[in-house]
Input
Amino acid sequence: MFTVDDQAAGPHDASLDHERLVLEARDVEFDWARLPFHYVPGEPFVTHVLNVLHLLLPAGEEFFVDAFKKALPLIKDDQLRLDVQGFVGQETIHSQAHSKVLAHFAAAGVDLTPFTDQIRWLFDKLLGPRPGWSPRRQNSWLLEQISIVSAVEHYTAILGEWVLDSPAHDAIGTDPVMLDMLRWHGAEEVEHKAVAFDTMQHLRAGYLRRARAQLIVTPAMLLFWIRGVRFLYSVDPCLPPGSKPRWRDYFRAARRGLVPGPMRFVRVVFDYYRPGFHPSQLGGLERAVNYLAVSPAARASR
Output
């Protein structure tokens, strides 16, 4: 069970009123046997915008876990160490859950490896370990990795807040198992939204690393999402050959509340560059805790 501690946060937190959670890895399971290919009914574009998460996260969250396991021995704050252990546990389950969605698509004859192999190369090779480097350079590279994870977690927290408050998906009849998976994942992203940032601060990665990482991550994530949706259209067996996503599809879906609108990101992306920023300022924690109390998968995991 998760608990909320109303006492003041530890010294690594920038916000004294940030609620302290005991992070737990919930061993959830999802049954994809009846998942429609377009699980947002009549909305292939929206379905594939959400599907990009499944393309990116298995390799991405394995990278997160590897970096933070290496950071653990460097953490001197007991509470932060517990937070990182909870973060690692949650991210491990996230990676496994999204991998099972990919396996479901593969079993249906949809080959996603041309895209997922590129993502794995990115995280394993381009951003991965540097075994031949000196200890000093490896430590500096670890700080770069932690800063990149913190920048990505800023966006996953925003996405998590959005999916927890997306009544349009309930109204349109989005597949309930997929919706529960996305909301369970989103709620845990909101739960641990400060952990990577606090670790970056604790290890004194520095403001320049923090800002540089976000300057890299922001356009990279936008590019991956655009390329991911285009790729998914190209392998979608339910669409007419040559079908392509259009920007007007995105703005139409955003107006209907089926995908996050651009202003949701514009409003918060620049906050990350403020010297006094802390992820606890994003909010959404109460909604996350409340959802995890009723999530079918989270409840079954207990």
Notes: The two ends are 8 Å apart (CA to CA).
